[in-house]
Structure formats: C-alpha cells, structure tokens
Amino acid sequence: MKKVIQLHQTTPEELVNVILLGVKKEIEILKQEFRPKEPEEYLTRTEVSKMLKIDLSTVHHWTKRGKLKPYGLGRRVYYKRSEIEQALIDLSPIH
Description:
This protein is mainly alpha-helical. The protein has helices spanning 12-33, 45-52, 56-64, 81-87; strands at residues 42-44, 71-73, 76-80. It has a 3-stranded antiparallel beta sheet. Helix 2 (45-52) crosses helix 3. It is elongated, with a radius of gyration of 27 Å. It starts with 11 loop residues before the first helix and ends in an 8-residue tail after the last helix. 5% of the residues are buried. The model has no long low-confidence stretch (mean pLDDT 89). This is DNA-binding protein. InterPro entries: DNA-bd_dom_put_sf, HTH_17. Residues 42-86 form the Helix-turn-helix domain. GO terms for molecular function: DNA binding. It comes from Salegentibacter mishustinae.
C-alpha cells in the first residue's frame, strides 16, 4: 500500500521554494563546518633533525625516551609531522 501525502493550501511552487531554502541553509552550514582532511606527512630521521635543528643522535635519544613516536616500513623509520609539532610544548609563563 502506498503512502499518500496531501498538502493543503500550498502550491507546488511554494513547496519547491521551501525545499530549496532548506537545502541552501544546510549547504551553508556544511560549508562553514567542513574541513578537508589533510594527508599525513611522514618525515625521515634526517628531516626531523633538520626541522628541529637538532643532531641525529638527539632524535635517536628522544625516540628511545618516548618523546617521539617512530613508525617503520621495512628498515626505514618515519615520524608523523603532526605528532612532532604536537610534541613541542609551550614555554610561555602562565599569567
């Protein structure tokens, strides 16, 4: 059995306009809230040392101490740029 919806005192044009207005509002909300996902960038140990202006041995020690999280593929070691940036702490005094 089919469901039938009846609209009283509404013209087809009014119905179309109301629907279009609702869709436009939803699209505007999506435009404001939508943030495209950035692809993760992986850095080598050398790139991390250059980025932070530290020696390769420091990268090694920070990795062993758990300050930096390594990712591996085969025998290669990589670090996520976003995690490197998150590992940096704010040293400004709290007022």
